[in-house]
Amino acid sequence: MCVFKTCMALHVSPKLFYLPTGMEYDFSSIEERCKKLWAEQRVYEVSENPSLPKLYILDMFPYPSGAGLHVGHPLGYVASDIYARYKRMKGYNVLHPMGYDAFGLPAEQYAIETGTHPAVTTEKAIKTFRAQMDKIGFSYDWSREIKTCDPAYYKWTQWMFLRLFNSWYNREHDKAEDISTLIARFEKEGCHTGWKQYDPQQHPPFTADDWKAFSFKQRERILQCYRLAYRSFTEVNWCEALGCVLANDEVKDGKSERGGHPVTRKKMRQWSLRITEYAERLLEGLNRIDWSESIKEQQRNWIGRSEGCLIKFNVQLSKFKDDGLVIEVFTTRPDTIFGVTFLVLAPEHELLPLLTTREQKAAMDVYLQYVKSRSDVERQQEKKITGCFTGTYALHPFTGKEIPIWTAEYVLAGYGTGAIMAVPADDERDRRFAEKFGLPVIEIIDKSMYPGAGIEDKVGRMINSDFLNGMEVADAIQATINRVEKLGIGKRQVNYKLRDASFSRQRYWGEPFPIRYLVQERPDSPFVEENDPDEADIPVALSESELPLLLPDVQDFRPTGDGRSPLAKNEEWIKCHYETDTMPGYAGSSWYFLRYTDPHNPNAFASKDKLRYWQNVDVYFGGAEHAVGHLLYSRFLTKVLFDLGEVMFDEPFKKLVNQGMIQGVSKFIYRLFAEYAPPGASPQKILENYYISKDVYLSLEADGELRRNDAWQRLSAEAGNELNCDVNTAYIRYSVQLVRINVALTEGDVLDEEKLKAWRTDYATAKFIRNAQGQVLCHAEVEKMSKSKHNVVNPDDVIARYGADCFRMFEMFLGPLEQSKPWDDKGINGVFNFLKKFWRLYYDDKGWRVTDNEPDTAAYKILHKTIKKVTDDIERLNFNTCVSAMMIAVNELTAIKCNSRKILEPLALLIAPFAPFVAEELWQQFGNSGSVHLARYPVADAKYLAEDEHTYPVSVNGKVRAEIILPANITSDEAKARVLALEQIQKWTNGNAPKKFIFVPGKIINLVV
RNA sequence: GCCGCGGUGGUGGAAUUGGUAGACACGCAGGACUUAAAAUCCUGUUCACUGAAAAGUGAGUGCGGGUUCAACUCCCGCCCGCGGUACCA
């Protein structure tokens, strides 16, 4: 009984027990031994070592979800692990850590539903993740593990926030500086309108004396306009269902990315990060990093730089008085200025009420009401042409003509100035708007010499455009900007789509802000000023010594419903006037890679020495879905820290590798419905709860009627007497329904009937119509891997069956790392067979078969060509072809019955990054002390790679007709003579000299006849 | 619509600088071993045609053109799939 049990646990054939141990490839005992050895010898712990070159190889840390890992998650981890192990064996000091992005919505949603504290859920999920990762055999230095929800960690997230809060962006120096330099400036010279960074929209100008006379509160209100982390009243993406504000990158198609709940625009007072100051540098930095073009392009689009021109239009309020109202528009096509026939303001534009005439007031109110009623989803899905005339006109800055001012929802308040000059002749949206409302169109560009050019293409010759007439568009743009600047009616300007990042979440499970609100004239202590609507509005930073500000317990995790977080329900918290919002998910993840360099430091987020040694991440592995969110915020924060002298680099991730997604293969079975109609009777249902093999179903006649043919015979045989009816006089109609089942119930395409019957009670009595092989085949479809689709494959199951080495190699063998591909375990046997075959190079029936015999040249050649191939391919991150190369080597070494240590020991080293367990086992068997993973990787010896002869394909007119073996150093003429003498070639030349003879040494020979 | 990526046997994929298209693996077919099965090993496997076989001929990397002695690879024009993005002035 005991023996039987062990045998089951090992998942190997019982034969093992008739043989001495160690002869058959027994991965589970190997894994057990190796894990013990690695833990005992602390093989993967690293420290700074100035005598070795450093390499920082990082995986995007996961959010520990309750569902655990599926086979898609570890794809990138396996790749980075192979790379890290390889580089370690190549003599690099490799930092390869792992941690958890542990704050986040799912745990909190779960808490709302069940009352379980998110900390509990999260800790449990982390344990699951860790156990799963340990099984796969990663070489992470777990002594450096971090969790963003750990107070020892988020103390420094709060510290990061304070650094942002206490800094401003000095545009003259083009970098962030401590806020004290700004205060010093205000103390010395105040803030006058001539200062480059002064924005009259933010606050009025003041003198140095004014500044000194300001109250703390007044000063703070001004400083809020400059701090990198600031609180302001802004339009935010409000998600009612989640009860919280979302960042732009968390909104997709007007719905929340998590959960797909509707999102509306709402004005709210909340924290933002002044990332827009970094737009240009974030753009520039992309040119210096080794990331995929697609991610860089996504970031460029997100930042959305566009060069253009600000132009002022004076408003003609009435014919009698002109009180100087000015509308500023932003345009990238100043050349089209003479085609402007109306202006359009965003419905939220602040001048709109002033511009609306008494006659238009009623119509305007109706329109604004309509705009307000439209959700973001509606606005994006049905793009209606809507708008309303204000009743007022502006004056064209060049022609002085009256131009009507409209408002329309297609103009966005948040971009440019929130107002546009409409050029219906040259802009698609403006044209449709003009057509709908009967506004005039002035043609200004002659595109006749550019056939095929679209309405918005920047080509053509200017017409009807005064001083621009005859110019090419590109020249006209410059000429107009120059003229506008000369006349002082506008200026050249660069605009960005990028918005400041919303940094508040009205949720519980996140980092508390190290902020309390001023409620007394004395900083830092409570006060209430009468009649001050903004009484709670002056944030005061906690001092560093007060960190971490611990997240308090609450009883109820639901949002308050009035837009505040559950923290507002904690009385102590409120009493202290702490901020009740918490930080968003990217707060902790924007800097975690820095913490790994010095994870337990209580005095700094990381010491300067360690940062200087490890520097930024050399290779970062992760999914492409973080293209703009995490990757952009991390770059931003790194640049801020660089400016403030906290780190020595301004890009966090030098090289980025995006692994593809592993999709699930969903399985479906065919449920058969059939009716039988005996003569003169009404049809009756037969074959209840029957499932038919896919191939049998496809072999049935497609018209839905069964006849007495082969398929029919098979059906009858399978179904027994239920189908025992007379088809000569009656008919049987059938139809079929695809039913989704769990992938675990199948083996490749074949259904496991017993497992299906056990899966759900309604299948307990299922009956099957099998194919000729006695199998029930399923239908398969590739979809996203998800619980609800029943197509999730757990790595634990795969490892239990094939071992971790096989799992790792199969993940790599699936295809190129960056490509998305479905998980299909059909091929895993191939990798498993390979590992067994590999093992048999070292062990046969009689045991260890490796000898000290001198191998022959052929064996050396096999080894060294494989070393070269594998080394080159790891460097290129082409892990799939590495596996193939090792398969070829094992096939060839088996064929020549190689058993020499001089070949087989390096071979074990070669496979070590891919199959760390089996490599370690063999390495120990060779009698080495220390882990294989700290040994030196083999190096290809050129002497075995050089060929003294080469087999040339000989083609005639590009078609291969013969092969010839020629010495490596043969000359073209000699080769020609040898080739022309070939019988197969003479057939094509007919003895004539070829028109041309091409000889590419080491490659090919081609004749033209 | 725009941007990015991709399209190769029955399947996953290989071909790294323009140089034997289909490596390696799965699956399938046949065979060996076995009382039998599993495991393992061997052979074949792009398609079509000819042939008993050996072999030969033709076609072939989404489609249509082009450059070249030679194109999966480079150029031009399309088609399809995936991902991102969308009133951004």
The CATH architecture of the domain at 309-493 would be Alpha-Beta Complex
How many E strands? 38
CATH superfamily of the domain at 309-493: Valyl/Leucyl/Isoleucyl-tRNA synthetase, editing domain
The percent of residues in helical segments reads: 25-40%
How many helices? The count is: 34
Low-confidence parts = 1-21, 521-533
The portion of residues forming beta strands comes to 15-25%
Q: Which outline best applies?
A: globular
CATH level 1 class label of the domain at 309-493: Alpha Beta
**Could you tell me the mean pLDDT?**
86
Largest sheet: 7 strands, mixed
**Radius of gyration in whole Å, from Cα?**
36 Å
Gap from first CA to last CA: 77 Å
Structural class: alpha+beta
CATH topology of the domain at 309-493, anyone? Isoleucyl-tRNA Synthetase, domain 2
Description:
By secondary structure, this protein is of the alpha+beta class. Among the domains are: 185 residues, Isoleucyl-tRNA Synthetase, domain 2 (Alpha-Beta Complex), CATH 3.90.740.10; 122 residues, no CATH class; 117 residues, Orthogonal Bundle (Isoleucyl-tRNA Synthetase, Domain 1), CATH 1.10.730; 60 residues, Ubiquitin-like (UB roll). The protein is built from 34 helices and 38 strands. Strands 10, 11, 12, 13, 14, 15 and 18 form a seven-stranded mixed sheet that branches. Strands 24, 25, 26, 27, 30, 31 and 32 form a seven-stranded mixed sheet that branches. Strands 2-1-22-23 form a four-stranded parallel sheet, covered by helices on one side. Helix 4 crosses helix 5, helix 26 packs across helix 27 and helix 28 packs parallel to helix 30. It binds one RNA strand of 89 nucleotides through helix 11, strand 11, strand 15, helix 15 and strand 32.
